[in-house]
Design a protein that fits this description.
disordered C terminus
Length: 493
């Protein structure tokens, strides 16, 4: 199996895990027991009916009083709860009876799969911080010096920020319209259903600004506080460029070496994805059954619509009005790079072909292409940012049973923008960055297992959008640079 391409390995892991989980859910997903011994003090008899969709715990006290508790992930009835964890607060006796006697075999094995699959997620969390730091530093310091670098950098960065935010807004619009997580999928066992009190929009935005300024950068690395890490790393890189000289060379060399090591480590971890997918999807299907895939189909639709709108409408309009070029002809010139990006799902792997297509087929100068594209392969991830925004809101809809409030969606958008900056241009690197956004809105990272089931197909699509956006950025920056008059040192204003 190790000789197969990674996407085939993940597909096999997903299919086998799904079959195992569905099989457990069908044949071991129901438990109906009556208990008369080993019950909590004061309880004479209890019965439990446990299925993936609904759980009933009924118990009788010594005085003959009978109590019925219902756990239904989709319930809205008064007195019922949507998760077993909530039952522990409402009725500790019913919770104790359920945990000791009522959990079905499918759920017991499913929760063990969750724990084992969680090891893969911990590995992703382990490499997130050093990958962000080394990727950002090496990418920004690779700009070099020379006349006009500052101007080109500002224009390139402005383009990247604007297009990434447009992509994220498109994704948020699609996920709010389609609402994939509210179309039939029940929250996983143990999920809570309360979002808590939402802060005002002003408080949310100001808290994000505060997060951008760490009072202790080393503490932010240890915490980890990802927004602080990204902001400080960008500032550190920019001021390293400003200092220049031997300092710049030493920091650039150290960052490049560190990035190569982290790329190798991340690639090795991602090769464990088939195993992680197997256990995580087995957990989801064993505890929920096949109902999860109804929502997953809507999720794929939401992501595809968002990527399609951004790639086929937003970016072509930018090329037409800002680069003054035909979007169709430009796309035709970039087709070798776009097809390679789709098949490889790697922005970095496609970079040589992207530069060749931009310069030799699209007629962009080497000065612009060699500046914009390497930076874009590191920090411009329109497709990834859109995908992660949709994925996190989809997970939130499944987890909470409702849409996130607008203030929380602002956090998702802002964090997705900054997280996409640190996403490495390798297959499935977005999985590492998604952990950042899930943590930012207090969602359990293990729910990422649902997304992994279809990640490869969406990874190919979003990587193509990433490369297409980088290429469009070259055309825009080239047009702006050509329109800027060159001021020679001896000229006078």
């Amino acid at each position: 199996m190790r000789h197969l391409a990674l996407h085939w390995q993940i597909l096999i892991g997903m299919v086998v895990g799904t079959l195992l989980g569905v099989g457990l859910n069908l044949f071991a997903g129901m438990r109906h027991v009556t208990i008369r011994e080993g019950l909590p003090s004061g309880i004479t008899m209890a019965s439990v009916i446990d299925t993936s969709a609904r759980t009933e715990i009924r118990y009788t006290r010594v005085d003959g009083q009978e109590t019925l508790r219902v756990v239904d992930p989709l319930t809205r009835a008064a007195g019922e709860v949507t998760a077993v964890d909530a039952l522990a607060k409402l009725d500790p006796i019913a919770h104790e009876i359920y945990q000791a006697h009522g959990v079905s075999l499918a759920k017991r094995l499913g929760l063990w799969c969750k724990r084992i699959g969680g090891l893969f997620l911990r590995l992703l969390q382990m490499v997130a911080v050093p990958l962000i730091v080394t990727s950002l530093v090496s990418g920004i310091l690779g700009l070099g010096g020379g006349e006009g670098v500052g101007r080109m950098f500002r224009r390139t960065l402005t383009y990247y920020v604007i297009t990434s935010m447009l992509a994220i807004c498109t994704g948020l619009l699609m996920v709010n319209l389609v609402r994939p997580g509210l179309r039939g999928a029940a929250p996983p066992l143990g999920a809570e259903n309360a979002t808590g009190h939402a802060a005002s929009l002003g408080d949310v935005l100001f808290s994000q600004i505060e997060a951008l300024i760490p009072n202790n950068p080393l503490g932010a690395l240890v915490a980890p506080d990802f927004l602080s890490i990204i902001a400080f790393t960008i500032l550190f890189s920019l001021f390293t460029l400003r200092v220049g000289g031997t300092v710049l060379e030493r920091v650039r060399e150290a960052a490049s070496v560190g990035f190569e090591v982290m790329m190798a480590m991340t690639t090795a971890i991602i090769h464990l994805a088939p195993i992680g997918v197997f256990f995580l999807i087995a957990y989801v299907t064993a505890t929920q059954g096949v109902t999860v895939f109804k929502a997953l189909a809507w999720y794929v639709l939401a992501v595809s619509l968002g990527l399609g709108i951004h790639a086929c409408i937003t970016l072509p309009l930018i090329v037409r009005f800002f680069a003054k070029r035909s979007p169709l002809e430009f796309a035709r010139a970039m087709s070798p790079a776009l097809l390679t990006a789709f098949s490889s799902a790697s922005s970095n792997g496609t970079l040589p072909l992207t530069m060749s297509s931009v310069e030799q087929r699209a007629g962009v100068s080497n000065r612009t292409g060699s500046f914009v594209l390497p930076l874009g392969a590191t920090i411009n991830m329109d497709g990834t940012a859109l995908y992660e925004a949709v994925a996190v809101l989809f997970i939130a809809q499944m987890h909470h049973g409702q849409n996130l409030p607008f203030s929380q969606q602002i956090i998702v958008a802002f964090t997705a923008l900054l997280a996409s900056v640190g996403a490495a241009g390798i297959p499935h690197a977005g999985l590492v960055m998604m952990v950042i956004i899930l943590q930012a809105v207090n969602l359990p990272v293990e729910l990422q297992g649902v997304i992994l089931a279809v990640d490869r197909v969406l990874d190919m699509a979003r990587t193509t959008v990433n490369v297409w956006s980088d290429a469009c950025g070259c055309a825009v920056v080239e047009s702006l640079e050509s329109a800027t008059p060159v001021v020679h040192p001896n000229s006078h204003a």
